[in-house]
From TrEMBL:
Cofactor: Mg(2+)
GO CC annotation terms, alphabetical: centrosome; microtubule
Organismal lineage: Eukaryota, Metazoa, Chordata, Craniata, Vertebrata
Transmembrane segments: none
Name of the protein: Tubulin epsilon chain
Organism: Brachypteracias leptosomus (short-legged ground-roller)
Family: Belongs to the tubulin family.
Subcellular location: Cytoplasm, Cytoskeleton, Microtubule organizing center, Centrosome
This protein's UniProt keywords: Cytoplasm, Cytoskeleton, GTP-binding, Microtubule, Nucleotide-binding
InterPro entries: Epsilon_tubulin (IPR004057), Tub_FtsZ_C (IPR008280), Tubulin (IPR000217), Tubulin/FtsZ_2-layer-sand-dom (IPR018316), Tubulin/FtsZ_GTPase_sf (IPR036525), Tubulin_C (IPR023123), Tubulin_CS (IPR017975), Tubulin_FtsZ_GTPase (IPR003008)
Name of the gene encoding the protein in the UniProt record: Tube1
A UniProt-annotated Pfam family: Tubulin
Main location: cytoplasm
Length: 474
């Protein structure tokens, strides 16, 4: 099965750049003979470029020239040009890029209404061309941020296009949400306008908060520098650093944060790329974790965050990995799933882990977690035998949990502060096709979503230790 990522906007393309670098490193660590195999084909085409230009695909044998199955879209050229001049320049060609020069000016309406319609035909054509090269297209990924103009506006416009053009293909969205101290004053408008589109057109959304990424990077640095774990830790965590990728690239301030998101995407797709005793396809995630169409926001956590010097670690560390995955400080949004209500939970494990380890840890953790009464056994598990580079094992959890609600409430509050004063509205309303009703509909959509989570939370009764909650009469 093939996943087709589209990176939209500055943040999306910076995360995408880290993702492709890590994907190549991961496949290089496993594929020592340089043979184009099924695992590689899920993200890369093997193209015969000897005759010049974009030659025919080669489906077997030696790797000739790998081309990423992807679209890079940004309405200013900076980040995409950096990628084209960097170590990954040969992985992309001009047929996969759409850029403009003026940017969206932190304005959702410019990205969605102006550039969306201006570039619609070009985007559809490139999506079709890229999809034609895929034997079994399973899902589209959109990687974008919510606070700016291009990622939020054009990113959600592309989401709508995907639903129209490829209605049968799953749409996964990785959305980076701005923090309260964001430097874009209009980010609450952009985020809420984008959320309406995510509510209506995405199959699954993985929300990620800048603040959480920042906290995780600091936590890793503190742990490594404190020396508490002595020589058991490597100086550089592969979750945040590209050190060891064989390329001496000057790391930028956001690279560590972007690396975390890239690792999330790698682990999410690992089961589709590598063998394992319990494979989990991306369409299974949506099928098992999304019981109601609008409640498709999945909270993610990654463990371990550190890279150990000795990959042969004892099982005590394995159990710790499962415990950490449910702790507040490993979540990729500011949330505490343990004290909220689970609709369902997926565990995607990589490395030398047995089904018995998985079962033991689920039974151990279960008493401390609140699941909805009608889905007490709401666990979905995947086991992939190939661990991430530098690890013996890793765990990605995806939780459909009401703990996302505070993030949405805070976003609504920030939106209303501006909207009550009609501040900055004129910047949006002068764009063709943008009406004030777009704002009222967007905040109404977000309020309805929050209310759906409230209704679920209201069903949660009794303390965690009270066994009677398992005997709720219907």
């Amino acid at each position: 099965p093939v996943s087709l990522p589209s990176a939209v906007g500055q943040c999306g393309n910076q995360v995408g750049c880290r993702f492709w670098d890590l994907a190549l490193r991961e496949h290089a660590a496993v594929n020592k003979k340089g043979i184009y195999d099924e695992a590689l084909s899920s993200f890369f085409r093997n193209v015969d470029t000897r005759s010049g230009g974009d030659g025919p695909d080669i489906y077997k044998g030696k790797i000739c020239s790998l081309k990423a199955r992807a679209l890079l879209i940004d309405m200013e050229e900076g980040v995409v040009n950096e990628i084209l001049q960097g170590p990954l320049r040969d992985v992309f060609d001009s047929k996969q890029l759409i850029t403009d020069v003026s940017g969206s000016g932190n304005n959702w309406a410019v990205g969605h209404k102006l550039y969306g319609y201006q570039y619609q035909e070009n985007i559809v054509e490139k999506l079709r061309k890229t999809a034609e090269h895929c034997d079994c297209l399973q899902c589209f990924f959109i990687i974008h941020s919510m606070g700016g103009g291009t990622g939020s506006g054009l990113g959600t416009f592309i989401l709508n296009l995907l639903e129209d053009e490829f209605p049968e293909v799953y749409r996964f969205v990785t959305s980076v949400y701005p923090s309260g101290e964001d430097d874009v004053i209009t980010s609450p408008y952009n985020s809420v306008l984008a959320m309406k589109e995510l509510n209506e057109h995405a199959d699954c959304v993985l929300p990620i908060e800048n603040e959480s990424l920042f906290d995780i990077v600091n936590k890793i640095h503190q742990m490594i520098n404190s020396g508490k774990l002595g020589s058991t830790l490597k100086q550089n965590s592969l979750v945040t650093s590209s050190t060891g990728s064989g390329k001496t690239v000057q790391e930028k301030p956001f690279d560590a944060m972007n690396n975390i998101v890239a690792n999330l995407l790698l682990n999410l797709t690992s089961s589709a790329r590598f063998e394992g005793s319990l494979n989990m396809d991306l369409n299974e995630i949506s099928m098992n974790l999304v019981p109601f169409p609008r409640l498709h926001y999945l909270v993610s956590s990654l463990t371990p965050l550190y890279t150990l010097t000795d990959v042969n670690v004892p099982s005590r560390r394995l159990d710790q990995m499962f415990s950490d995955a449910f702790s507040r400080d490993h979540q990729l949004i500011q949330s505490d799933p343990k004290h909220s209500l689970y609709l369902a939970c997926a565990l995607l494990v990589r490395g030398n882990v047995q089904v018995s380890d998985l079962r033991r840890n689920i039974e151990r953790l279960k008493p401390s977690l609140h699941f909805v009464s009608w889905n007490q056994e709401g666990w979905k598990t995947g086991l992939c035998s190939v661990p991430p580079v530098g690890h013996s094992h890793s765990l990605l959890t995806l939780a459909n949990n009401t703990c996302v609600k505070p993030t949405f409430i805070e976003l609504k509050d920030r939106f209303m502060k501006l909207y009550k004063k009609k501040a900055h509205l004129h910047h949006y309303l002068h764009v063709d096709g943008m009406e004030q009703s777009c704002f009222s509909e967007a905040i109404s959509s977000l309020s309805d979503l929050i209310e759906e989570y409230n209704e679920l939370d209201a069903t949660r009764g009794g303390p965690r230790t009270d066994p009677s909650r398992l005997k709720i009469a219907v």
